[in-house]
Amino acid sequence: MTEAHLNAANRQDFVLIFDVTNGNPNGDPDAGNLPRVDPETGLGIVTDVALKRKMRNYVDALKGGEERYKIYVQQGAILNNQHQRAYTALGKDPKEKKQADIQAAKEWMCDNFFDIRTFGAVMSTEVNAGQVRGPVQLTFARSVDPILGLDASITRVALTKPDPKQAADDETARSGTMGRKAYIPYGLYVAHGFYVPAFAGDTGFDDADLEVLWQALVNMWDLDRSASRGLTACRALYVFSHSSPLGNAPAHKLFDLIKPQRKTEVDVARSFEDYQPIVVDEAKLPQGITLKQFDV
Questions:
Q1: Residue 234 in this model has a pLDDT that exceeds 50
Q2: Strand 177-195 with 150-156, pairing
Q3: Residue 125 has what DSSP assignment?
Q4: Phi then psi for 101, rounded to 5 degrees?
Q5: Do residues 187 and 25 make contact, with C-beta atoms less than 8 angstroms apart?
Q6: H-helix or E-strand containing 178?
Q7: Over the range 174-199, which residues count as b (16 or more CB within 10 Å of their CB) and which as e?
């Protein structure tokens, strides 16, 4: 493939392909944590929020010790406390609510938190640090074929506490409790993403950040293992790089060039090998567009 010029000055549109084997890629709390699904088509769904969470976790593990790569949205974090860090560092008082101070706090937050620089954030809470729109956005991931959501029964042999109604030597008292585990046997998912440099100037997103973004997309599942997710793996990352900040072609026309297809002789896919190799006809690339496929 033609080597793309992956720099933060130009627009980038990308396609992320990943699969899940015997796991739950994104449970729906409104449906008993069953895998999310489009009820009309049976296609599986993974939300953009779930993908961003994994990206944040990876960047935090990779570079969280560096000042420019702190993570703003963390589990259990108090966001007002995060905003207060900016005012403390600047020697300002958020109670004064001066516009100049709010602007300075916003710039400090962008300089220090990778996910704010990347995705943007609404920080106009009680401790007001403004709001900013990030240059990187993701769509929901959708499976190529319908998924089969299953719910397996599991047993926990250890008890939380003894049952006072049963004798200590009663075998049924030590038989454990029943639980449920939701999963799909297999699913191949496709998500789309966009990098718009027009918004990078507002947050300070740069070439180094873009390189970290690609690393996170390829490697994030290797640091996000759990029994509930089964085997989840990035299978491909394609990046369409434009030769201009505003872009040289509509994103949807580029995405149409990458469409995973199940092999005709396969009735039900149960592995990545059940899909045809993706071959992109570079002759169909619009002028000013280059394509890079990352090694995974």
A1: yes
A2: antiparallel
A3: S
A4: -70, -40
A5: yes
A6: strand 177-195
A7: eeeeeeeebbbbbbbbbbbbebbbeb
| Tokens, residue 252 | 């949807």
Contact (Cβ atoms closer than 8 angstroms) between residue 249 and residue 286? yes
For CA atoms 141, 145, 151, 156, the dihedral sign is negative
pLDDT in tens, 132-191: 999 999 999 999 999 999 888 888 777 666 666 665 555 555 556 777 889 999 999 999
| Alpha carbon distance 100, 94 (integer Å) | 11
| pTM summary value | 0.91
CA 109 – CA 117 distance, rounded (Å): 8
In whole angstroms, what is the distance from residue 18 CA to residue 238 CA? 12
How would you label 96-120 residue by residue, b for 16+ Cβ within 10 Å and e otherwise? eeeeebbebbbbbbbbbbbbbbbbb
Name the token pair of 105: 């706090």
List helix spans (H) across 36-124.
Answer: 48-63, 79-90, 99-112, 114-119
Two structure tokens written together for 44: 């599986």
Tokens of 66: 């560096």
